[in-house]
What does this fold into?
Amino acid sequence: MKRLIPVLMVLGLGNAYAAKIAMQDQSQLKVPGSQAAPVFVAPAESELPDNAFGQMVRDGYALFVDTRRLMPEAVGNGMNCSNCHLDQGRMAHSAPLWGAYPMYPAYRKKNDKVNTFAERIQGCFQFSMNGKPPAADSAQMTALSVYSYWLANKAPIGVEAPGRGYPEVPQPAGGYDFKRGHQLYRTQCAICHGEQGEGQKIADDYVMPPLWGKDSYNWGAGMHRINTAASFIKHNMPLGKPGSLTDQQAWDVAAWINRHERPQDPRLVDGSIERTRLKFHANDGVNLYGHEINGVLIGKGVD
Amino acid sequence: MNLFGRFLISSLLIGTWPTVYAADGQKIFAQGGQDPAAMACLGCHGADGKGVAAAGFPRLAGLPAGYLSKQLADFRSGSRQHAIMEPLAKAMSEEEIQAVSILLAGMPADPAPSVRRQQMSSDPAEKMALYGDWDRQIPGCVQCHGPGGGGVGEHFPPLAGQPASYLMAQLNAWRDGSRSNDPNQLMIGVAKSMTDAEVKALADYFANLVSQEVTR
It folds into this structure.
């Protein structure tokens, strides 16, 4: 736990340095809090036109739901888009596509450039799906973009809609605790995700996604941040019972999940975990990459 | 099952339970347990353990042993209520429960239909089964019960191929409280959020999924 103190200090000082050090966030965009009630209503599937555009929406939908099977060359782990974006990208507080699409193009510190929406999706493939992003002008990327555009139909451009992203769950005053997190994981999460975070498969396909290990999101994914995972968990997990955990429980279990090894950050600098930590993780929310826990260095990655 | 198969399973059972009296799963299934109140499974669940759809008796063949033994234990404790199964389970010994659960898990079952979650659905029952209704926080059935409702692990039993009247009875049992043995209360909330019409439509959907596959 001693090694966590620097993390907590960084957090505490975060505000003071905010003007100088921009957070290496998934996005420089802000997420409205959970108290802001979502008002946007995505179009119904029955409204989808029966034409070339409608077909492209359907294609994108299929890729979004069954990503790993339909895009094996692009997905390097056991994840589908719909694992992190519930209800096929429709659900508020589950990073809905209708909340994301109108916010791009946008500058992202993560790759230090203005990103189009397609480039933003490429980021998902590189990090959350630990794979090789399809080309921005590929048919697959077009289908995913068209599906997102359709869900955002009639949403105002450039407006941070209530319900977008995963609303931040403030870190509890006492921080987080691995032991409590492990206990909660065993009682609430393991039934689906397995005692060792391995997920559950039928034949070659994951039904419940792995939360750590070689088939999970890598060390560069936004979900590797404890604060982001806590926000996702609080608003979305267990499936069908959102909001059932306290803020403290969400942080504890997020910390437990994100202290486990997962595929290396593809941005690894000169093969050095420490340099990668300094460049990409030191100012990226609350995370354990490059820290030592009980004498074990975190962030070595798994193949 | 041929003689060799029976021999294999009994050898397995003897290997698993060497110290206690070796409960014979096959014998319990076909003839009942030591206590006469522990009636033979096949009387209601069929000689192949695949259930009797017309009577609403569920399929047991191929279900995970952990799930089956938990249900028998829950019939004993009352967290799953059933007029016939409660006294029957109470008449079984722990060893008999284990033995028959392992036997049933090893019995052949029809493969789960391969229904993918890829296409938008205009049919309300299919939509609920594959994708759920998140306005009411109902996940799609297959998100836990697996592709085609074929079951996942020992906590999420198969739905496909179970009799419609059985599936409907279970959903209604979650709703009226006569069944409360779901881990982490995952089913109670889901079942209570459904309408009567949805319960019936979903039960029909999974009961008929196998034959639908063939005709498609």
User: Anything to note?
Assistant: Chain B touches chain A at residues 112, 116-120, 122, 131-132, 134, 137-139, 142-144, 146-147, 150, 152-153, 155, 183-184, 186, 189-190 (CB under 8 Å). Residues 124-207 of chain B form a domain with the Cytochrome Bc1 Complex; Chain D, domain 2 fold (CATH 1.10.760.10).
